[in-house]
Amino acid sequence: MNRLLLGASSAAIALATALPAFAQTAAETEATTVRDIVVTAQRREQASQDIGLALSVIGGESLDERGVTVINDIENIVPNLEVDSQFGGGQPQFRIRGIGAREYSSNNASTVGIYVDEVAHPYTITTQGAMFDIARIEVLRGPQGTLYGRNTTGGAVNIITNAPTIDTRAGFTAEYGSYDQVKVEGYVSGQIAPNLLGRLAAITEQGGAWQYHRDTGEELGDKDKTALRGRLTWIATDDITVDLAATYQVDKSDGLGFRLRGPYTVFDGSITYPTDTATRITGWELSPEMAAVSGRALGSKPGRDNDGLDLNVQVRANLGWAQLNSITSYQSFERSEYNDWDGTRFNESDVYFYNDIDAFSQELRLSSEYGDRLNWMIGAYYADETNDGGFYTQFRGANRVLINTPYQQSVEAFGVFTHNSYQITERLNLIAGLRYENETRTLTTSGTRRINLPEGPLLTYDTDLSEVTGKLGLEYDLNDNALLYASVSRGVKSGGFTTYNATSATPFRPEVVIAYEVGVKSDLFENRLRLNGALFFYDYENQQVQGLEYDRDAGRLGKITNVPKSEIYGGEIELVWTPIRGLTISQNYGHKEGEYTEYFAIDGAATDAANPPNGPWTNIIANDRSGEPLQFPKFNYGGAVSYDWEMGGLSLRAETNYVQRDSIYNAASSSVLEGYWLWNASVSAGPVDANWRATLWSRNLFDTYYEETRNGFNGSARPTTSPKQGRTVGVRLTMDF
Length: 737
Fold this sequence. Notes:
By secondary structure, the protein is mostly beta strands. It contains three helices and 45 strands.
C-alpha cells in the first residue's frame, strides 16, 4: 500500500507540474473559466481549491436540475458516497468511502456528520424533511473531528441555507410532475429595520403516488411534506453579529411498498403469491393490533407522521486579535412510522417505529484572523440528548404476535478540539489538529417481549467513549493553480445499542479509523479545466456491522456487532471543464476496495441446522470471514453536461446528468443488488433580462428499474425488495422579484 501511495503522489506531482505548461498552448479564447466556490468546510470562508482535503460542493441552484429532491439523492453527484433509507423506511444511512452503518433504528450516532448551518444533527432521521432554500451542500470525505463539534469516521455533509439579504428580494418555484406530484417553494428576504435583516422561506410537497396494491388497486407513494424556516441577522455592532434561525417541518408522506422477488406462500398456507413482475406493484394491510399501538386508523397506508423543530442562535464577535463564534442549538423531533416489509396484505413483517428526540448543544470556537503565517482555531463542544423510543413488529417467525422493544436513551458528550495551519515556506503549509472527547451513552429498557407476555424488569446499560484523535498533514503549492496535499488522521465513532429484535441491549464498541490520504487540486488551461483527485487507505478497527446473535428461546436475532479489523482503499477523481462559452462538462469517479482482515461471525444457516427447529438454540456455529469483501459498490461514475445560449430574445439551457453505480452483494438476502445507470435531463427557457424561467424536466429518463435494499424478514427464500421510482416528467416555473 505504501508503494501505491508513493506512486500516486509522484504521478500527481508530474500531472500538476506538466499540464499548466501545456495549457498555454491549448487556450481557446471563447472558453469561460471554472467558477471558484467559497466554502466554510474548515469553519472559515475559503476557496474550495485552497483546501487540502477531498471536498465536493453542490450549488443550491443546481439541486433541481440534478434531481435532488431529498438529501439521499446527493449520492448520485458525489463520488464514493451512498445514502439509502434502510428497507424503504424514513431512516437514512450515509456512507462515505465504504464507512457507514446499515440500520433502521434512530438511536445511534451516524458515521457521517450531518450539519445544517454548522449545527450538528446527531440523528439522521431528522434530515428527511424537505430540501429547500439551500445555498450549497459541502461533502467532506475522511474522518472529521478537529474542525467540527462531533467526531466521525466517514466524513461530513454540510447543508448551508440561504442567508438574509440587505436588499429586498422574493421569489417562488412551482413544479408539477408525474402522478400529480406538486411542489411549491417560496421566500422573501430583506432589511426589516436598521441593522436587522430577515428571511422567511417555505415549501410544500404533495402527491406523487406511483405504486399500487396488487389486491385492491389502492395507490401508495403520496408525499405530504411542509416546512417553514425563518432567519434573522442582527448587526449589533461593527464587531458583533447575531443570527437566529428556526425551522419547523412536518412529514406525513406515504411509505415505500415492497415487491416480491419470488413466489411466496403465506404463514397459514392459504395463498401463494407469484413473483411480482410489474415494477409498481406492492401490498400492505394494517392489523388491528398494530393500529392500536401506532395510533393509526384501520385501513391506513404505510407511512410517516413525523414533525421536528430546530432552533439555533449563532453569535460572531470580532475581538480584534481573534474571532469568537458561539452556536447554541435545540432540536426536537417526533418519529412515528409504519412500514409493511412483507409486501402483502398478511401481517408477516410489519413494523412500527416511534421516537421522541430532544437534543441540546453548545459550541464555542476561537480562531485567529486569517492570513497570518500561523492560523489557529480552538473549540469546545457540549451535547445533552434524550431519545425515548421503540420498535413494534409483527413477523412470521413469532407467529405474527406483536413484539416490542421500548427504550429510553440519554447521551452526554463533551469535546475540545483544535485545528491549525502553519506556513513553513511560501509554498509549504503544515496542518495539525487534535481532539479529546468524552461521551456517555445510557440505555434503559425492559428488553424485547411479545406483548402477550409480562414486561420484563428495567435494565440499564451504558457505554463510554474517551478518545484522543487528530490529523497531521502537509499542503504544497506547486504554483498558483495546483495544490498537493497529504495527511494522516484518526477518527472515532461512538458505540451504541441495538434497539430492535434483541433480548439484551449489551452495547457494541466504538469504531476507529486511521486514514492515510494524498491528493491534488488543480486549475488548468487558464482555469478552464478543474481536475481534483485523491487516493486513500483506511485501517479500520471494530467496524460496526449488522450481525447475528441467538437467544436460547427466541432463536436468531439481528444485532449490531463489531468486526475486529478491516481495511479499505481507493480514490476519487473530479473534473469540471468549460471548453467553449456556455458549455460545462463535469465528471466524477470513485473507486474503493475493502475486506475483513480479522472476523469470526455467527453462521446463521449452520446454527439453525445444528439446533431443533423450535429451539432451544444452544449450539452456536461461527466461521472465519477474514478475506471476505466489504458490502459496498466498488465504483460509482457520474457527470453532467450543460449548455447555455441565447436565441431570439430567449435565454436557454439544456442539461443532462447521469450516474452509474456498481452492483453490491447483499449479505442479509444472500443476493446481489444489480448495478445501474440513471439519467436525468432538463431544458429551460426564459426571456433575456426577464425575472422568470420555465423548465421541462425528466428524472430517471430511461425508466431504469433499480433497487435500494432487500430483506428476508418474512422468511422467504427469495426476499422482498424496495424498488426505486421509474421515469417521471414535469414542468417547473421559477420567478424572482
